[in-house]
Amino acid sequence: MHGKSVLLIIGGGIAAYKSLELIRRLAELGVTCGAILTRAGAEFVTPLSVSALTGQKVFQDLFSLTDESEMGHIELSRAADLVVVAPATADLMGKLAGGLANDLASTTLLATDKKILMVPAMNVRMWESPSVRRSFEILKKDGVLFAGPNDGEMACGEFGPGRMAEPLEIVAAIEAALGGAKSLASPLAGVRALVTAGPTREPVDPVRFLANHSSGKQGYAIAEALVRAGAETTLISGPVSIAPPDGVKLMRVTTAREMLAACEASLPADVLVMAAAVADWRPDIAANSKIKKSTDRVVPLIKLVENPDILATLAHHAKRPRLVIGFAAETDDVVENAIAKRARKGADWIIANDVSANLNGESVMGGERNRVHLISAAGREDWPEMSKRDVGTRLAARIAAEIKGAA
Ligand code: CTP
Fold this sequence. Notes:
The chain is 34% helix and 25% strand. By secondary structure, it is of the alpha/beta class.
């Protein structure tokens, strides 16, 4: 993505605010972004905020002498690698489908020789209207790419398809479009992913166990993002209290040894994401009946033995997945420890995070947000703080670029 350039056309819709976030996300990836703001778009976001984020002049008017003399509407899109319309309104879709050009946005869309990615956002009834369905079908036939719309609650209070895709989903679609992945909606179609999540529990006796604070949220979010990207996803989960994402094949396990067995039974896979917080040790003997307090108050001694290292085992397995991704939950020297862990375990990537961090008043373990570093042979990437869902989406996009890029 680095060094690529996108022309973003911002249409008039309440979802236009997400386009500002999209510009920021693209900038983080080294993608430059020029922008056209339609008259209706300018009712929702200001030219000043768009230009502050793109670092460039925002183009608005077809008949502006200054705009045309600086950069004509034909050249505007020629300088870009991809034209993205977000939000793509019923109006913009209809105009392009019908060949109309009466403002800068529609003229640029007709005049471009670049691929167009539309990110629709509109009320569910509009989206389902025969006329928008027609535009959608025509545009798809003409080779226009689409990201979303998603199902969900809308600003207007209704529920259904029409909600604009989230910024990181759009980034994934842009990445796929620029990288030439076969299917935009499903950049990971045909890919088998294996994700582990949550803690493991190591029994002491029938009523007690050793475990840790992992909530499973990050692993579940990754599994969900991989399913959204079209991967056939198996989620092997330790005991957690969250609902599994739709579309995953869920395998519930309790101990580290069960998790290893479930992983091995699920091979072959193309990608492994080991997000589980596996217990490093287990009691050497799990008592068959409850350990009682002795009358002489002697405290029981629990001898620990080491659990198998699932990540290292699968990284050196005869059926090793093509891309092996581990996690490093650290409290000190996060990146240094993660670099050493990557080499020690034979993983391709390590996603490292500081689990002692407090983000937005919440601890990382159990909380909704995360700040991670991606460690690979190419070095380190520091991702900004974001929701665990967004980490999942961005990781799925990276996985798609890696797997499809190498295909
Ligand atoms: N892991 C594993 N099997 C284990 C322990 C850890 O597969 N028995 C995986 C985790 O799922 C994670 C990575 O190894 O992807 C790193 O886990 P972490 O607990 O950070 O590393 P440890 O090897 O346990 O090292 P340490 O606790 O000393 O930091």
